[in-house]
Amino acid sequence: MADTLFKVKVADRKEAKKIHDYLKEIPKFFDALLCMKSDSVNHDDQIEVNEEFLTLLLNKLVEKKQEYLYILDRAGLIFRETDEIDLDKMTNEFVHGG
Which residue among 3, 20, 58, 62 is the one 20 to 30 A from 29 at the CA level? Predict the structure, then answer.
């Protein structure tokens, strides 16, 4: 994402930066995802995943991804901004490397 921030349109930069800052904060929540439990009698260690929190985090990530994809599309980084797309020309360029 950081590699595309410079290409985002001026009108979308504030929102793109907000999404970027949100994503940079996620690692500090990783500790809340896992819980280590030790059984000293059986000498057994178990890792439990906080599935509810994981689902919430993944849903939020998908939401932020969709928001950013919309910004990238408006900047012309996903689909070309032209009205006509010549698929034969694109295929020829791909096949012949030019």
Answer: 3
Query: What DSSP designation does 40 have?
Result: T
For residue 74, what are its two tokens? 């408006």
Mean residue pLDDT of the chain comes to: 85
Residues facing residue 36 across a β-bridge: 47
User: What count of residues does the chain have?
Assistant: 98
pLDDT at 97: 66
Nearest Cα neighbor of 13 from 81, 62, 82, 74 is 74
Query: Are the beta carbons of 2 and 20 closer than 8 angstroms?
Result: yes
How far is C-alpha 55 from the geometric centre of its chain's CA atoms? Answer: 15
Token readout for 84 is 């006509």
